[in-house]
Design a protein that fits this description.
Oligomer: single chain
Largest sheet: 6 strands, antiparallel
Mean pLDDT: 87
Number of strands: 17
Distance between the termini: 88 Å
CATH superfamily of the largest domain: DD-peptidase/beta-lactamase superfamily
CATH class of the largest domain: Alpha Beta
Low-confidence stretches: 47-79
Number of helices: 16
């Protein structure tokens, strides 16, 4: 016969079953019945002790003689039953602490439904938050790339030294280069040796020509009236021959046009023609000199004196500043400007002769008049047209008074013009592709900021060159995109060039956006 399950183990099994989720009302009823039965057994007190109990567990309690005599002897309960019962009570209290009370199935189903609803809501909230973050991360604006750029410096050339004549007095005026040389350049730009009146020698013939044309004007290309020379005019040849002045044949009864007679005065510097033509125009030398004085005053030449028409007299004097003004008046007259640039005399019935100004055609020199008088020295009033790259040729007029010799004056004038030309420089500002800075993005993209084209600027002497630039903020870009502009300023000249990217700047990846939330939002 199989062993019967002990009561205590049966009690524990029923308790675990009754308080489990699978326990039923019948299980809990059976548990209550078993607990009641075991409790009743433990409370019962038997009056006699069986022989079997004595054999199993003898009494070990010492009872006083008095008690033993008065109280009946009570046998001790079986140790196994009591220990099992005590253990069951302890386990009951532990079960009561650890096992929750049974829950009604309806309530359980409601709780499960509530938990499912709450779980679903939490899931939806989490999904919504996650979806919102993803949307934000993938569409949020991103900050501009960091710009690190510096304006390149341009070192100007060394200062230009203008080579003014070391002899006598000199001055020069330059028109057409005010943006480079300054507004005063078209007045007296440079001078040397002072501005005192000095003998002007044959430059006097230029004044005589202008005074005659004021009385007997000619248009461009016109020959003008015919002048017939008489015996008195013929005598002038001998007069100036004795004075060692430059002369040309003037037979009695010969004639030529006013234009041709002026050529004789200005091209080969014939002194006898200067007096003859001035007397023809005004009737007498005294009338001519009065007209000359009036003309000089009218043109502001207050430091110029004329006592005769040729310059053979050292009292015909002027200053460099007055002669600069005279040169401008002369070159503004088309008839005079045409004659003074002629390298060879072109008068009918007169042998060809070279102009006394042997610099004509050299370094752009186009006039005007030489003058030499011992012991005062050599003079040259000159004009020149110079192409130095400004777009419009420069008009230069200058004068040297009291030079050592005709040759030395020529050398000084050539050196002066050469120094002006050398003072204009094409300065390289930068070459296409030159780097001026970089863009760098938080997500690791970078590109250089480079010049979009090579640039140069024409400057005068050591004119400072300043550089400024503007660069646009950006987040992405393609190679060749224009991202700014660089500007150079040299005097009145401004040069600009585009600034471009030398490489692509790609947008960040989705992964970078998702893993760099604090770099988003611009």
């Amino acid at each position: 016969m199989a062993d019967q399950e002990p009561p205590i183990e049966q009690l524990e099994r029923l308790r675990r079953l009754a308080y489990s989720r699978d326990g039923t009302a019948d299980d809990r009823r059976r548990l209550a019945e078993l607990e009641a039965e075991l409790t009743a057994q433990s409370d019962a007190e038997p009056a006699t002790v069986t022989s079997q109990e004595k054999q199993v567990e003898p009494l070990e309690v010492t009872i006083s003689r008095e008690v033993a005599e008065t109280a009946p002897l009570r046998p001790r309960r079986s140790t196994d039953d009591l220990s099992h019962f005590a253990e069951a009570m302890v386990r009951e209290r532990e079960v009561e602490r650890d096992v929750p009370p049974p829950v009604d199935p309806v309530i359980r189903r409601k709780r499960r439904r509530r938990r499912a609803i709450i779980g679903g809501i939490v899931g939806l909230v989490v999904a919504a938050l996650l979806g919102g973050y993803i949307t934000f991360a993938l569409t949020a604006p991103i900050g501009s790339a960091t710009i690190d750029a510096t304006a390149p410096t341009v070192t100007p050339p060394a200062a230009t030294l203008i080579s003014m004549s070391p002899e006598g007095e000199s001055a020069i005026s330059v028109s057409g280069a005010d943006d480079y040389l300054g507004a005063s350049a078209s007045g007296i730009w440079m001078s040397g040796g002072g501005d005192d009146p000095l003998p002007i020698a044959s430059i006097s013939k230029l004044i005589t020509t202008l005074v005659v044309l004021d009385a007997k004007p000619l248009g461009a290309g016109e020959n003008g009236p015919t002048i017939t020379f008489d015996k008195a005019d013929h005598a002038l040849y001998d007069k100036y021959y004795v004075l060692d002045a430059t002369i040309a044949a003037m037979p009695t009864g010969s004639s030529m046009s006013e234009h041709d007679a002026l050529e004789m005065m200005l091209v080969i510097s014939a002194s006898n023609y200067a007096e003859a033509v001035s007397t023809w125009a005004f009737g007498s030398q005294s009338s001519f000199l009065r007209a000359t004085k009036t003309w000089l005053a009218a043109n502001g030449l207050d430091h110029t004196t004329m006592v005769e028409p040729t310059g053979i007299d050292a009292r015909n004097t002027s200053t460099p500043s007055d002669l600069i003004a005279l040169a401008k008046i002369a070159m503004a007259n088309p008839v005079v400007a045409e004659i003074v640039k002629m390298q060879t005399l072109e008068v009918p019935n007169v042998p060809p002769q070279l102009n006394t100004n042997d610099l004509l055609g050299v370094d752009g020199i186009s006039g005007i008049k030489t003058g030499t008088l011992d012991p005062s020295g050599s003079n040259l009033l000159f004009s020149a047209t110079m192409d130095v790259g400004t777009g419009t040729p420069l008009n230069v007029v200058g004068v040297v008074l009291g030079g050592f010799s005709h040759e030395s004056v020529d050398l000084d004038v050539k050196a002066l013009l050469a120094s002006i030309t050398a003072g204009f420089h094409n300065v390289n500002l930068g070459n296409s592709g030159d780097e001026i800075g970089t863009y760098a993005t938080p997500w690791g993209e970078s590109a250089k900021i480079v010049l979009g084209k090579s640039s140069i600027v024409l400057t005068w002497s050591d004119t400072p060159i300043t550089t400024t630039f503007t660069v646009e903020p950006l987040t992405t870009g393609a190679r060749g995109d224009t991202v700014g502009e660089i500007t150079w300023v040299a005097g009145a000249t401004t040069v600009t060039a585009p600034l471009i990217l030398d490489a692509d700047i790609d947008p960040p990846t989705a992964w970078w956006r998702l893993t760099h939330p604090f770099d988003l939002g611009g």
